[in-house]
Design brief:
98 residues; four-stranded antiparallel beta sheet; 2 helices; 4 strands; 38% helix
């Protein structure tokens, strides 16, 4: 199951590299697109739950890394207004060079 990184920029300019254990993240967000904090958080929640479920189906246990990542996104998102913009800079294979 190919893991992915997704690099984002929060409304205050802070860059963050995030992790998804599955390519399903690219079904929910796109490189080069901006989303409101509320929409971004919602899409990440859907994607990371789906990714964790894919891991569970394949290996028999949920992916704690996906849930940890979701928790970090939700914590960061709480620092901004729901209508502020988050930019997805890129989605790439996990561990890939940029």
């Amino acid at each position: 199951m190919p893991a992915m990184n997704f690099d984002i920029t929060w409304p205050d300019g802070r860059a963050e590299r995030c992790y998804s254990p599955s390519t399903v993240i690219s079904e929910h967000i796109e490189s080069g697109q901006s989303y409101t904090v509320a929409v971004f958080s919602q899409r990440c929640e859907q994607a990371l739950h789906a990714a964790s479920e894919r891991v569970a189906q394949k290996y028999g246990y949920a992916c704690s890394s996906a849930m940890d990542q979701l928790s970090r996104i939700q914590q960061s998102a709480s620092n901004y207004q729901p209508t502020q913009q988050v930019r997805v800079e890129r989605i790439s294979p996990w561990g890939g060079d940029h």
